[in-house]
Amino acid sequence: MKLSILACAAAISLSPVVTVRAAIDPPCDAYPTAKQARCVVIWKELNKEDGAAISQFGLDQLKRREEGKINAQQHLSENMAFIKQSTEKRLARLKERMAKE
Question: Which pTM was predicted?
Answer without folding.
Answer: 0.69
